[in-house]
Each structure stands twice: as C-alpha cells, then as structure tokens.
C-alpha cells in the first residue's frame, strides 16, 4: 500500500509515534528508575533530569539490600540463575518431547489422537491454582518439592502444549510427499523426520520454543508454592524487595531490567526466525 | 518377463464416523520389463491410490505386489527400488534445483563427476538447464514439475512412477517432452507407470493403457485394442474423442439372425452366421441391448437414417456434425468439409458391421469389425 498524500504521511507518523510512546513508556521509565535512588524516584513532582547512580545494580549483584532499617541479604543473582536454568531446561525437555509428538499428531491418524492432543491443550486453560494444591501434596510424597526436576516437570504444563500445538501446525503445512520423495531415495522415516521435516519446520519450532521460554520465565505461582528460596526464579525473588521498611523501587527497577535482558536478547536473536516462520505458510507451490 | 505384478489388490480407507471407502478392488495387473503403462481414469477412480501402494506410502488392504521377482508390498519405500515424480512436485525447498535432482544420486554413492554428468543430461532433456541454480520457490509451477520429473528419471530404479507428470506444462512443451521421455524410457529399457486423465497423453506415451473406474480395472490393453474392442460400455464411452454414440435397441429374431431396432427410426440386421456361440446366446436371451458406433464410422450424406442437423463444426481438418434422430443425438465425424446448416435434414449412414453391441449389464456382446 502506498500513501502518497502529505496528510496521510503526517497522520501515519503521528499515529506510529503515539503507539511507540504508549508501548515503550513503561520500559523506558523503568530503565530510568533503575539508575535512581528511592528518594529521587519518590520525589514530587518527578523529574526527568537526575544524577544517575549504579547503587541499585551494585546492591543486586552483591546481594546486599540497603534499606532505612539496615542491610538485608537478597539472592537476586541466584534467582536470575535459577530462572535461566529452569526455563531453559523446561523448554529443552518440552522440545524433545513435543516436537516428535507434534509430528505424530500431524502425520498419523490414530485412535484417541485428537482426544490426547486436546487434553494436552486443556492444561493451558486450567487455572494453575487448581492443580497446585494436589500437586504440592504429591510432590511432598515423591520428594520432588523444592527440586529443579520438580519445577522443570511442572513447567511442562506451560511449555509442552504450546510447542505441541504450534509445531503441529507447521508439520501439517509441509507436504508429506516431500518426505515420501526422500524416503523413496533410500532413507528411513526417522531420517525423513530429522533431515526433512524438522529443518523445514525449524522456524516454527524456534518460534514455539521462544514463546514457551517467555511463558516459563514469567511464571510465578508454580515456583512460589513448590520451591524454597534457593530454587526460586526472579519472578518470586522480586518479592524480597517489599521490605518491612518500604518498597525498594530502585532495586525493583534494576531487577526488572536485568531479568528482562536475557529474554529480550533471545527474542531479538530469534526475531528473524519468527518472521520467517510466520510467513512460511504463505509461499506454497 | 513380468517386471511388476499386482495380485488381488484391495484398498479400503477407513476413518472414524464415516463409511469405509473402497478405493481399489481386486486389481490384477502385470507389467512387462521395459513397458510403459498409463493408468487412465477420472478423478477418484483409484489410479493414484494404486500408484501410492506400489511406492509404499499406502498399505495394501489385501493382495500382493511383486517387483522384479521381489515381494515388495511389505518393504519400506526406501527398499523397493522405485522412483516417483509426485503430482505436487514435492521438491526440497532449501535445496537448489541441481541439488534436488542430485539428491537421490548422492544417496546412491556415485562419484561427483558421474552425478553432475547425469544431472546435466536429464536437465537438458526436460529443458531446465538455465534454472539449475535457482531455488524451487523461485521457479514456476511448470518448471517445478519438470524438476520433479527429472529427479525421478535421473535415478536407477526398477520402476518409475509418474503421477500426472505433465499436467502443468504448456501444450507445445508437453508434446516435445512426451516424445523425449518416451525415447529415454525405451532406450534404457525403463519400466514406467504413469497416472493421467488425459487420453492423448496416455496414447502418446504408453504401450498399454489401464482404464480404471470406481476402483475397478476395466480393461488393460493397447490403445488400438481399447478403441476397437472395448471390454464394456464404460471403456467404450470413455475412450475416443468425440465419444462413441450409444443407443438403446430392441432385439428381435429374424430369419438366420437378429434385428436390432432403435425406436422406429433405425433398423440393423445382424447376420447370425457372423456371431460366435456366446454372442448368439447372449443376444437370444435378452430383449434389449445397447449399441454403440464411433462417430468416425458414420458417413454423412448417404444412407437411410434421416437426421436433423443440430450443429456442424469445421475443425480445420474434420467436420463434427451433430444430428437429431427422433430425439436421439448422433455425432458424426467426416474428414472433409460437410455443407449442412442447423435445421437441415441430411442422411447418415450407419452400417451394421460397425456396431458394438453391449448387454444390459454393460459387458460387450459383439465388437465392431475391424476395418
């Protein structure tokens, strides 16, 4: 579409700026806050110009939270590390299980196939609190409470259905005859799966992996109930900033910046796969 | 020697909540080594199912398939020694055209020089030398189809399966490629089966044609045989352009033979002496038959059947005259130009010896004499 009229171009510019400000403002504001002390943040009226300080980041990295009532120990870096370990492990496991399962659901019609696929999807619309109570009882019995394994396992409720359903659609878009041609040339179906189907669905798998990574990263309630301090991810760890002597806005802002960074970098890296993945279906024969 | 032998093949598709679909029924077929066979039929007649069962993408519900003496219907596709060109082309998108064609050869572990020589040779044959370095998504449907064809033909296989191999090509190129592919297949003694719904393509390329309908093999014979001695009413009406004229006729005995009358407008005397025993018995036991006559066998301007001309088309080398005779439509094809306008009354000549006679169940009672 080509808008050539001046009014059209001006309108488009203004609209884009408004949208950009609307979406970027919270992020920019938090970024600025992370370089301010609590006093500067709570000043009325707020000021754009301030003297930046790295004290918030220092406190997070050293694990010493300075409040009006004295020093508090926090394990933010530990939480960040937990988030990375838990989310990556959960997504890897979900990919290992979900991609072959998605292939099976896309290619083969079998008894109860649709029922199983739908049951897996239904994990996404059951409220987490519904399963948490029984799950925590089971976990205590099984000794899975407060273990990485236990949390990675429960994260499958988030990651597996997402990967299964997104990747299944990508496999369904690939003509089975492409794999047939490969198999006729003297290859087994396993080779057709690993060398033809998976690479062709690659962008879709990357997109699904990224999405489920973000969902796992942002999960709060599972780890809150099932893990203790040294296994908790940043989402739960951030509660430590609400202290008896007040809320540490500066440190919260710095923590947010630090915890958003890994996902942001991953998203930027995977962006081209995402776009490619979304446009794959459009270029057929 | 029979290269491919299909015995009692049945294919039933079952899906939950729907009645089973019987796609192929009791198919028996033997293809000789070096033979080119066409599977001809309208869509849904079971021809593609048959091809896919031979390739191994569909299981046979019953029956057996043997290729070069090996029973292959239980083998995985990789071990059947079969090459196939797919109707949907199915090229590998991340590979160039050259890589796509070379792909099957690389798995066969040939030297690099040999691979490139064979790719170039087949590319020349189907006229895709100039796009060898393009990617499949950058070339047209017709080009993709030729790449897919090249990818199948470049391989060493016991059998080549081609599913609608030229459907997307321009008519002129199609005619050229047909000739080239036929001579390639013949030169190397390659056995091939191709699926088509185009009669011209079937008769131009194939040694024998298998006509299928409703999952049943109707007749498997050369084009000449299909035209001259159709096994049943379906083959008679399906093969030939324009299609055979078919009429209902009453059978009455007359001295030494039979009389076939179509309404009150046409009467044909069939000499009993020219009939074999079974045909005579069949005619004697039925009061009604269907008779067929090829449009090319009807002469316009002579004879005793008066028709009212409905249309008269001059196609540049022949005239197609459609006439109405007591509510029945007859089409005649004449080699020369016929002068007749719609509404004119002209005589058509239908000779009894040119009549095919079919029983009420559709089987052939008597073929026309071969002239």
Low-pLDDT stretches of chain B: none
Total beta-strand segments of chain A: 4
Measured on Cα atoms, how large is the radius of gyration of chain B?
A: 25 Å
The main pleated sheet of chain A reads as: 2 strands, antiparallel
Main interface: chain pair and counts: A-B, 20 and 29 residues
Summing up helix and strand content along with how strands pair, one would put the structural category of chain A as mainly alpha
Our count of domains of chain A comes out at 1
Spatial shape of chain B: globular
Radius of gyration of chain A: 24 Å
Please write the string of helix (H) and strand (E) elements of chain B. EEEHEEEHHHEHEHEEHHEEEHEEEEEEE
Average pLDDT of chain B, rounded to a whole number, is: 90
How do the helices and strands line up, and which of them pair or pack?
The complex is a heterodimer of chains A (285) and B (371).
Chain A lengths: L5 H28 L4 H5 L12 H8 L1 E4 L2 E4 L2 H32 L5 H13 L2 H15 L5 H26 L2 H9 L4 H12 L1 H17 L2 H6 L7 H4 L4 E2 L2 E2 L1 H31 L6
Chain B lengths: L1 E12 L7 E12 L3 E5 L6 H9 L6 E6 L2 E2 L10 E4 L11 H11 L4 H14 L15 H13 L5 E5 L7 H17 L4 E5 L2 H7 L2 E6 L2 E6 L1 H6 L4 H6 L6 E10 L2 E6 L3 E6 L5 H9 L2 E6 L5 E16 L4 E7 L2 E7 L10 E5 L6 E3 L5 E3 L5
Helix pairs in contact in B: 2-3, 2-4
Summarize the structure.
Chain A is mostly helical.
Describe this structure in words.
The complex is a heterodimer of chains A (285) and B (371). Chain A is mostly helical and 285 residues long. Chain A has one domain (76-278): Orthogonal Bundle (MetI-like fold), CATH 1.10.3720.10. In chain A, 72% of the residues lie in helices and 4% in strands. In chain A, strands 1-2 form a two-stranded antiparallel ribbon. Chain A has a two-stranded antiparallel sheet with strand order 3-4. In chain A, helix 1 crosses helix 13, helix 8 crosses helix 9 (189-200) and helix 10 (202-218) runs antiparallel to helix 13 (249-279). The two termini of chain A are 25 Å apart. The model of chain A is unreliable at 281-285 (pLDDT under 50). With 371 residues, chain B is of the alpha+beta class. Chain B contains 9 helices and 20 strands. Chain B has helices spanning 47-55, 97-107, 112-125, 141-153, 171-187, 199-205, 223-228, 233-238, 277-285, and strands spanning 2-13, 21-32, 36-40, 62-67, 70-71, 82-85, 159-163, 192-196, 208-213, 216-221, 245-254, 257-262, 266-271, 288-293, 299-314, 319-325, 328-334, 345-349, 356-358, 364-366. In chain B, strands 6-7-8-3-9-10 form a 6-stranded mixed sheet, sandwiched between helices. In chain B, strands 13-12-11-14-19-20 form a 6-stranded antiparallel sheet. Chain B starts with a strand and ends in a 5-residue tail after the last strand. Classes of the chains: A mainly alpha (285), B alpha+beta (371). Chain A binds chain B through residues 109, 175-178, 180-189, 196, 199-200, 283, 285, and chain B through 15, 55-57, 76-80, 82-84, 86, 88-94, 103-104, 107-108, 137, 141, 144, 151, 155.
